[in-house]
Structures are given as structure tokens and as C-alpha cells.
Structure prediction request, 421 residues.
Amino acid sequence: MAIPSPVRLALLACCFAYFSGCSTAPKALNEPPAPASRVEGMEFRQAMGAILGPPFIGGNRVETLSNGDEIFPAMLGAIRSARQTITFETYIFMEGEVPRRFAEALAERARAGVKVHAILDGHGAKKAKMYHQMLRDSGVDLVSYSPAARSFNPFRYNNRTHRKLLVVDGRIGFIGGVGIADEWAGNAQSPEHWRELHYRVEGPVVAELQGAFLDSWLKSGRELLHGPGYFPHLPSRGSQWASVFYASPAHGSHNVEIMVKLAISSARRSLMIENSYFVPDADTIKALVAAARRGVRVQLILPNEQIDAPAVRRASQTKWPELLAAGVEIYEYQPTFTHAKLLIADGLFVSVGSANLDYRSLRINAEANLNVLDADFAAEQTRIFEGDLRRSKRISREELGKELRRNAPKRILEAPLTRQL
Prediction:
């Protein structure tokens, strides 16, 4: 997960940007939406559902899983309980103890007759080739996700699936930010054990999680998966309204951007955002500044120097002066690298999943998020956010100025990377 030296990376980025035709990338929304609806209003729910695709649907139960100690046992337990089908999609699948347990669990279910379909990103899982053959030999229907191979366009290699999805028997779903690697093991107790949030889902919205998986599956040239093993009747399992939306360059390329900007523009009291790779575009900055100036308390929790990609943090810091000047509160999580992706608006709307607030999530990667409209769920996520806030350091304008001056030479070399971070 380390990146090359700044000089080498800058040269590579220049070559890539030139040959990949970055000028043909989808353009950003021209302006953030004006504050019109409120998060608690029916109009907000209707707009979010209508624009992003799937509507909010009631009757769901979403359980929060914090860090590897909770996330991995829940996911592995669900896999081992499968009786008909498993669909699994992830970006990071490395070598190590955690990946070995997942590979063995998926292989065992396939040998037992469960239909197991897995999408491992061709880049993020390239170091786990030792597991690929084992999975295939066990009967797992495995896709190595590589848009370049499908389109015969080598420059599409940059379009990765960043989604983290697991659906078991069409009834139990998981979504969030976790990768299948040992860095996520433990309880965020040290720099070697990352901070993460993931979610276990039951209820009618699980069918939308399955739909997000099928989006990548079908784009990989595989057959349509359907029937009761994949889409069973899903009775109510709770009281939460939820929806799943997904985005990629070929489908809903603006969806992450629309969700974020609509949530920011609809907030009236509070915005809480924890995000691992925060390099927003100019319009997102404008929306956050406008929110702060109209009286919304905007709080951001971002990684400190323990981030796995230091160039991302340095690029992020160039966005902070305008935010700080408007009254946005910026904090850096201290115990370890926070890889969590959490947005809470006005104590009611919550978005979680794979999407970061960077150019890759907004334009390049395939992403999937779960949106929830529920006051009790939002209160739980607020308590989690506030707990992370207590373990974070608030950034002052003076401290930021010193760091910007100290890192200026590196940022100059990394400037060509901006549209790839």
C-alpha cells in the first residue's frame, strides 16, 4: 500500500495523465446545489432516492461493526452459515492471516455446494494470487476485476472496483470500508491496526446490495444471477429507512458527488465527516464553506501522518485554509490510520460505505454506499464520531501554515498526481 517516491510518482502521473486522455473524464457538477430541502423533510428523501437511483425502503436493521475484532468474525460467521449463495466484492485482498481465513471459508462453502461468486480487484488483490487458484479449484466463480482487459484499452486499468460488498443467501449483507488484509485486524490499538467501520445489514435493502454487486459482475462479462437464492423475499427486520447507491465511470459517475453535495446543502445544524482520503474538489469546498457560514457546525476527522499514502494528506492540507477560515473544525485522528468513511447530517441522515471524498471516488473508481435515514442510527453514529473526536487533535491555522511551508517542495513534485488522488 506504500506509494513510490514523489519524483517517480510525479513522472508516472504525468505520463499517465497524458496518454489516458484525462480531458475526457466526466466533468464535475458546475455548482453545489442551493440549500432548498432539509434533511428531515420528505423532499430530501425523495430527491436523494430519485437522483441516485434506488429509493429509500423501510424495514431494515443495520448493525455497526467497529474495527477488525468485530468486523471479521461477523463476516466470516455469515460466510460459514451460507446455504445457497455468496456474492463477494472487494478491492484489497492481500496475503496474510486474515485473507487466508477468508479464502478458506469461501473455498469450504464452495466445496459444500454453495454457489460462491467473488470479484477481487485486479490491482488491489494482485498480491494474493496464491489464493486465486485455490478458490477456483474449490469451485468459486472468481472474477479478477480489470476493465482494461474487457475493453482492450490499457488506460482503463486505472478504473478499479473500490466496493466492499458481501451478501449471503440474498438475506444478510455487509458494506463499509474494510479491506481483507492484516492491517485491519485488531481493535485500532496501534499504528499497525487501522481504524475502520463496517456494517451488517438485514431487511429489504439487502436486495439493493445484491444489485450493486451485480453491476460489477455483469460488467465483467458474467451471467445474470437471479432467483430466490440471490433475491429471496425479504421481510421487515427493523425500522430503518435505507438505500444503496453505486457509482462508476460507466454508471452514475456523479452519484458520490451528488450524495455528498446534497447532504451538505441540506444540512441546517451539523455535519460530521470522517474520511480517510479527503481531497475534495472546489465545489465541495464551496459547499462546506457555505454550510459553515450559514451556521452549520462542520467537523472533519481526517488521518494524521500515519496515513498509508502521505501524498494524499499533503494534497488534502492544501484544501484546509479556506475551510478553517470559514469556521470548519478539522481534526486528525491520533492513535492509528483511520480508514473509516462516515457522513452524518443533522443527526438524521447517515452515509457509509467505500466512497472517499477524493477524485478517485468521485470520478475513477466503482464505489458503493449505504444511506440511512433514522434518528436512532444517526445518534449511534454520532456517539462513534464523538468517540473518535476525543482521540483526535484539532488543527489550528498556525500549525497548518507551518506544515504547508515545510512540505512545499514535496507538494510541487506531487502536483501532477492531484487528479489521481
Notes: The longest helix spans residues 375-390.
